[in-house]
Each structure stands twice: as structure tokens, then as C-alpha cells.
Design goal:
Helix content is 52%, strand content 18%. With 327 residues, the protein is of the alpha+beta class. Among the domains are: 62 residues, no CATH class; 122 residues, 2-Layer Sandwich (Tetrahydropterin Synthase, Chain A). The strands form three sheets. Strands 6, 7, 8 and 9 form a four-stranded antiparallel β-sheet that branches. The C terminus is likely disordered.
Amino acid sequence: MKFDPDDWRDFDWRDIDFKQLRLLWVIPVILVVFAAFSSVYTVQAESEGVVLRFGKYVRNAEPGLRFKLPFNIERVVMVPVKRQLKQEFGFGTSGATNPNQFSAEQTLERGMVTGDLNAATVEWIVQYRIRDPDLYLFEVRDPDNTLRDLSESVMRTVVGDRTVDEVITVGRQEIEADALLQLQELVNKYELGLSIDQVQLKNVNPPLPVQNSFNEVNQAQQEREQLINLANGEYNKVVPRASGEAEQKIQAAEGYALKRVNEAEGDVARFNAVMAEYLKAPEVTKQRIYIETMRQIVPNLGKKIIIDEQASQILPLLQLSTESAKN
């Protein structure tokens, strides 16, 4: 078709529809705005973003404001890596945020058989975190339900290795520790990308028909332990006191014995000294001993009158003066 310049003379600009031209500009603007909004996203502080490009893993996104390719070329999956998740077995708490927190088969979960072929109802919880988002999203199809199956299998194995008394009373901490180790090993083996923080037993009871009898036995054992503790307390209070009193008396007796021995040795030494002097001069020693003895005895006798054995009467010896009479 050949263009004729004369056609421009016949062209009327008023025939152009400018409203249709404006619509043609609106479409690119909308695309630009949509691209801007679809390329910006925010990763929360407790999460980590996994970026997929056409469904294939590309990278991880840290918390904060991030960008991606628009028009759903890249898609972001938020994984709460810093949030502690929980699964309950044998019971269920209302208002759970985790859709896999409890199951509908709670009665079957808590019914177990112990190592001594007794039945027990066991309720427990598993607290865990998402350690590796890549493994959690792509390695196993349903990691949360897989964890439920592994946890139930491990708990039945651990409970089956113990007696009913250990499960219900003294072996709870050991069961929790063993279950935690075995569950973490299986989680690592299946590459679930999870980290098990805690396995905690909740209500552990015998079956309902024998629960009252078991409680009576348990109460009797507790009373027995209480009486033993009271007896040990009384023993620890009385025996040390008696031992202290015995030690005190022994020390007093030993002190008295040492005192008597020292006094006897002193008397012997003094006697030997006097004996040595007596052998040197027997009469002088006798006279000195007599005088020393009388010096100790006479002051205790009171007022005495000593006269000569040759005196014929006592009157000449008495002082009958006025001063004496007053006395």
C-alpha cells in the first residue's frame, strides 16, 4: 500500500479517542506498581525466609526487609526457626497454634505396656525447634507428623524396657533423658532438620480399674519413707548429743585421773624429800614435823590453857585483875 501525502490534508485530529489512549498508559503503571509490591517482603525476627525461584531453592533470607523477583517468579516460605514448637501426646491443649500439636487418637497414644507386662497410661510432650529450614521443607514430605511417629515409637521402646513402678515413680527422669537422646538420633538420621529441646513426662498412671489400688500402695510407700525419714532425723538428733555427752564425761574422767596421778606423784616426791632429810637427822626431822603439824592444828582448837604438869593449882596462873575481869 502506497502512502499518499495528500491524505494528511484530509485527516481530522478530532476523530482520535484520547480516552482509549489513557487506558493504554494505565496498564503499564499497574504492572509497575504490582511489580514493586510483589518484590518487597519482610522476614520477622523469629523466622527465616526460604526463597524459591519457580519452585527451586535459591537462598535463605535473614530477618528484615528483603527483595525478590516480582510476578511470583520468586516465592518466599517463612520458617519459624527461633520459635519453640510443641507436640502433645495422650492429651491436647485447646487454642494450640501448631496444627500438629496434638492428634485425634489420644487414647491410643497414651496406652502402653511396660517391661514387666503391666499396662500404664503415659502422657508426654516434645518441645523442638526448626534447626535447618532446607531439610525441614525439602527432605521429608511431612516432618511434623514424622516427628510424632518417631516420638511415639521411642517412648514405647523406653517404657517397654522398664517396670511399671519405674515408669510411674522413680524412673521418670531417666525415661525423659533416654527418650530425648534416642529421638534426636532418629531425627538426625531421617534428616528432618529439627532440634529436640526437651521430652517431658506429664501424667503417668496405671490403668483406671487398678488406679485406686495402686494409689493406696503408693501412699503406703510414701508413709513408710516419711517414717524412715523421721526416725533418721531423731537418730541424727539423739546420737550426736549422746556421743557428745559421753566424750565430755570421758574427758572429765581423764582429767580427774591425770589430776590424781599428778597429786600422787607430788606426794611421793614430797615424802621422798622428807625421807631424805629424816635419814640425815632423824630427831631434828621429827621435831620439825611435830612443830609444823601443831602449827596447823592448834589454831583450829580455839582458846586453850596450857599449864605445867608440875603446877599444884591453877589459881596462881589466872589473871584476876579488873581488866581481865572485864574481859
